[in-house]
Amino acid sequence: MRVSIGSDHRGFHLKEQIADYLRKSGHQVEDEGARTTESADYPDFARLVAKKVSEGAVDRGVLICGTGIGMAITANKYPHVRAATCTDEVTAEISRRHNDLNVLCLSADMLSPRTVERMIDVWMTTEFEGGRHQRRVDKIGDLEKELDKET
Fold first, then answer.
1. CA 19 vs CA 23, 28, 81, 94, 122: distances in Å
2. What pLDDT does 147 receive?
3. Which of 69, 73, 120, 149 is the most exposed place for a label (fewest CB within 10 A)?
4. Confidence band of 150 (pLDDT split at 50, 70, 90)
5. In the CATH scheme, what is the code of domain 2-150?
6. Which residues form the catalytic set?
7. What are the pLDDT digits (tens) for 12-66?
8. What does each C-alpha distance from 8 to 15, 28, 47, 49, 84 come to in angstroms?
9. Which residues are CB-contacts of 148 (< 8 A; sequence separation ≥ 6)?
């Protein structure tokens, strides 16, 4: 799977760990930065990852900042992106199974590296359930189209 990954300065170390873990798991990883722990603004990296997911250049995205919240807010501005901050294996699994989440947002400040690896495993291997959930995801897509026409 092709995965774009990005972080701000607070998520830098966790991003490096996740990118390495994904590569070792056989995935292609495109690292959008940050490249250091120097202060950096999360929207700059969220937009790079979300744009690639939105355009279908990658299959999924992973974003990391202090809480994951700012990354999710920014990523969700892009069409076809369904981003959320997940906090454990259960939310990671349900986000895929029910919401077909394509951008996983994580907190560098509140999650242990071991928890994150388990979450990544679950999120990368869980399939979208479809069925009634497909109808709901389709409604989100319809709303995107409707709002696009209004702008």
1. 6, 9, 20, 22, 16
2. 86
3. 149
4. confident
5. 3.40.1400.10
6. 65, 98
7. 999 999 999 999 999 999 999 999 999 999 999 999 999 999 999 999 999 999 9
8. 9, 21, 12, 12, 17
9. 79
Which of 95, 77, 107 lies closest to 137, judged by CA? 95
Contact 6, 35 (CB under 8 A): no
Neighbours of 147 (CB within 10 A): 10
Strand partners, 5: 31, 62
Q: In 10 A of CB 29, how many CB atoms? A: 19
> Does residue 34 have a cis peptide bond before it, meaning omega lies within 30 degrees of 0?
yes
Q: What is the pLDDT of residues 125-136, one digit of tens each?
A: 999 999 999 999
